[in-house]
Amino acid sequence: MQSRVGSFSSLEEGQVPHRIMHQYSKIFPLRLLLLFLLLGVGIVFLYISMYTYRFVSIHSVVSPTPSRIQTHSCVEGSKNLEGWIKPPSALLHEMNDSELFWRASFGPLIEKYPFKRTPKIAFMFLTRGPLPLAPLWDKFFKGNEKLYSIYIHSLPLYEPEFQPSSAFYGRQIPSQVAEWGGMSMCDAERRLLANALLDISNEWFVLVSEACIPLRNFTTIYTYISESRFSFIGAFDEDGPYGRGRYNGHMAPEVNLSDWRKGSQWFEIGRKLATDMVQDTLYYSKFDQFCRPHSCYADEHYFPTMLTLHSPHLLANRTLMWVDWSRGGPHPATLGENDLIERFFTETIGGGSCMYNNQPTNLCFLFARKVAAAALDHLLENSSKFFGI
């Protein structure tokens, strides 16, 4: 009895009997070990869960593999030089004028090209529709395919019918309506220049119409243009109502009366000036606002004035286009079969004098207008005698 009472008294006093203490000491390490084991399993499970979540999240973000591959294929051509210098495979595109002019204004700042480049002449035909003298031009171009390119700006709805064998086949660019004497005509010329500038091989740019013909063979014209240190565009300071009389004082201070120039719209220019003409916005806005038919004709004043202000040292200040103004009127005379005889080519056109690379020469004109479509057969029959083609 006493021992049992003693045992109870020990519990009441907060003491653990020796026998119970011994059993507890055996159980405690097992529970502690189990606790650590469960804790470790929990940590491992938590780590695996977090890793799995991160993997799934990243995979879901990166999962559009086809899109990445598609983008990669689109820019593949830009990873080598060929992707930058290869001309567009087709002239038809969906760029508007702002996008086209911006794209065409790109150009290398290093003068020497790091690849073999054969410079070409871009012949730009500004026309309403058909090119009735195309067979003569085809004969002119034949055999010189690596030295020229062709661009046609016509009415938007016109659909040409050139044969695949023609140099004009597939050479029509996206076009808009161009009105004579207005800025829309200059827009058409800039559109031609911009499309031609997309081909890095085009070095010189010649603007002609459907009524123009070459006056020499291709080799002579290519040599004359390629060896010239100047671009051929007229820019004259002309007094009277048809010159300075068309100037509007609201153009100042960007364009002053002393800057005002006049010249033929048919030009030949180098690549630098072509880029300047495409990227201009300063002078364009002035002419668009204050040079309107019938008090002012932008196609006769905009480019001559702008280039005189921008790069006067690069201008020959004359045109390569022969026209007959002797009959009077706002337009030059139309040349028919009876006008286009051997004497016309040897004396009328070949008998003048001008400056070429600061030296006098009697070869001043390479092209002529306006030539009647009915004269085509006559010109083809005599092309060897007249032009050497």
Derived structural class: alpha/beta
- Profile the largest sheet: 4 strands, mixed
Report the radius of gyration as a whole number of Å: 40 Å
Order of helices and strands: HHHHHEHEHEEHEHHHEHEEEHH
Report the helical percentage. 40-55%
Low-confidence stretches are 1-28, 53-77
Based on DSSP secondary structure assignment, what is the total number of beta strands? Answer: 9
Shape: elongated
What order do the strands of the largest sheet run in, or round the barrel if closed?
Answer: 2-1-3-5
Mean pLDDT: 85
- Total count of helical runs of at least 4 residues: 14
Strand content: 5-15%
Tell me the distance between the termini.
144 Å
GO molecular function: glycosyltransferase activity
Pfam family, one: Branch
Keywords: Glycoprotein, Glycosyltransferase, Membrane, Transferase, Transmembrane, Transmembrane helix
InterPro entries: BC10-like, Glyco_trans_14
Record the SSE blueprint.
Elements: H1 2-12, H2 18-62, H3 65-75, H4 82-85, H5 97-104, E1 120-126, H6 134-141, E2 148-153, H7 183-197, E3 202-209, E4 213-214, H8 218-226, E5 268-270, H9 271-279, H10 282-290, H11 298-310, E6 321-322, H12 342-349, E7 354-356, E8 359-361, E9 367-368, H13 376-381, H14 383-386
Parallel strand pairs: 1-2, 1-3, 6-9
Antiparallel strand pairs: 3-5, 4-9, 7-8
